Structures are given as C-alpha cells and as structure tokens.
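Need residues for this backbone.
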C-alpha cells in the first residue's frame, strides 16, 4: 500500500479484528497457563495448527515454492528466532499482566534498529531516534518501574515483574533480529510460504523444548482445555485472515494499526482474568502504543 494512501473501511475493520484476535490469543494463553498448560505445549499446538492451515492454503492456491541457496540458509535461522520469540513471549504472558507483557514486547522497533545497525551497518531513521525515548518512558510508566503505583518500591516491584519483563524484552530482541534478517535475506520469498516455513520451524523448536522437559504438560482442568483451544483457534484464524483477506483489501502484510493489540489485551485481561493496572500505567501503555503506531503510519 503506497505511503499516505488511506485504507478502506473494510481493511481498517479487518486490521482491528486481527489485533483483537491476537490480543485475545494471549489472554486465552494465560487461562491455559493458569490451568496446567506450559509454554512449550501451547506453542506446539498453536504453531502446528497454523502451519497446517497455511500449508493447505498454499496447496489450494497452487503457490509455487522455490528457494535459493540463501533462502535455504536463512529461513531456518529466521524460523529458529521466531520459535524462541514465541517461547519467550508466552513465558512473559505467563508471568505478567497480559497487556504489560505485550507492551514490553512492543519495544521491538527499537531492537530492529539496533540489529539493523549491528548486522548491516544501517543507521536508525531520525523518526525512530525521536520515538525511542518516548517508547521507553511510556514503558517505564506502564511497568511502574519504581514501584510507586504498587507501593512495593523499586526492589519489590522488580522482584515481582523482573523475570516477565526479561522474557518480553528477549522476545522483542529476537523478533527484531528476525525482522531484519527477513527484510535483507528473505524479503523476496512469498509471504505465505515464508510464514508457513516459519511456523513449522517454531513448532519444531517448541517440540524440542517439550522433549527436553519430559513431555507435554496438558490442561489439568476444563478451563485449560478451553484456553488451549481458544489460543490455537484465534492465532490460526488471525494468520489465515492476514494472508487471505488483507491482500484482497489492498493491505499487504502487517500494519501499524495492529499495534493496538495491547489495548485490546488490557480490556480483555480485565474482563476475563480480572487483571488491573493503575491509571498512570494505563497512561504509559497508551504512550507506547501511540508512539509505535506513529512510527508505523509515518510517510516514508
């Protein structure tokens, strides 16, 4: 979609639906985690079903699959990174209020700029340099890094959120590197093919993790089965819509509009899980979401 061209109402609504489904996927994951499911098991189920659906779509649409030697080297690396990102992000969701985990993950544009400079010596754009401190300041408010809203103090707050924040930032870092490698090494691969291979690799990474931990950890209660089924359905359906409906509406790939996912997660986390955060944290969340959306919507 050319820069500055307005998208249709149908496309805008579809993008919001995808953001809602992705936010709901993470809330469903937390329900599953609260009822006996572990992170690796959830990623295996989610990735396997999504890869299968995308594989069926590729076959039905007779998409030609052809990889160069570079693709064969780099696609497994990208898939490995996305597998690690999936494990880290779900690990953050299991430890933090869902919206806060997603907000910390939303620092990935910063990581993308860092990796682009480190790997390809590409300096960050001026807009991103301006946005970086805004995103970080908003995240500091949202996470209540000094423990003022919680009343725990900095040490107590970090004892409570430190591990979850670490996993979320690790997810952002690995996702940022995956984005950079995709752009430079696999950008010419059909998006449907690239996503199918990535989901397959992510599932294999999670399956190896399951094997190393001694097997699957399945739900211990009906709510856990509901959460596992819901996260798998929501994630797979969102990706299917992304690669079947959006191209017909004139939208290719991801859009900045979908970065409202943490806002949906905040509302759903309150409704479904009873998770609440202080008003100042909500303000910080809106700063992060607004800054990331502004980056994605800017004219290039």
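Answer:
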């Amino acid at each position: 979609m050319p820069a500055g061209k307005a998208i249709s109402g149908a496309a805008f609504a579809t993008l919001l639906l995808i953001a809602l489904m992705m936010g709901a996927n993470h809330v469903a994951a937390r329900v599953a985690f609260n009822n006996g499911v572990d992170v690796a098991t959830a990623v295996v189920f989610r990735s396997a079903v999504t890869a299968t659906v995308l594989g069926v779509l590729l076959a039905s649409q007779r998409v030609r699959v052809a990889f160069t030697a570079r693709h064969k080297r780099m696609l497994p690396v990208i898939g490995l990174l996305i597998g690690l990102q999936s494990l880290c992000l779900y690990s953050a969701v299991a430890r933090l209020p869902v919206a806060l985990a997603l907000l910390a993950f939303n620092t990935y544009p910063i990581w993308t700029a860092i990796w682009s400079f480190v790997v390809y010596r590409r300096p960050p754009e001026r807009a991103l340099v301006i946005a970086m401190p805004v995103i970080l300041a908003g995240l500091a408010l949202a996470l209540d890094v000094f423990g003022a809203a919680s009343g725990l103090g900095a040490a107590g707050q970090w004892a409570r959120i430190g591990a979850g924040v670490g996993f979320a930032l690790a997810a952002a870092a690995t996702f940022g590197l995956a984005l950079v490698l995709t752009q430079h090494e696999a950008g010419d691969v059909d998006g449907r093919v690239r996503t199918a291979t990535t989901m397959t690799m992510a599932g294999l990474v999670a399956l190896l993790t399951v094997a190393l931990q001694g097997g699957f950890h399945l739900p211990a209660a009906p709510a856990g089965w509901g959460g596992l089924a819901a996260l798998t359905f929501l994630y797979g359906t969102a990706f299917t819509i992304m690669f079947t409906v959006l191209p017909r509406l004139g939208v290719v790939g991801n859009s900045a509009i979908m970065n409202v996912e943490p806002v949906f997660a905040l509302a759903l986390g309150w409704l479904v899980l009873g998770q609440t955060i202080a008003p100042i944290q909500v303000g910080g969340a809106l700063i992060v979401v607004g800054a990331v959306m502004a980056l994605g919507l800017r004219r290039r």
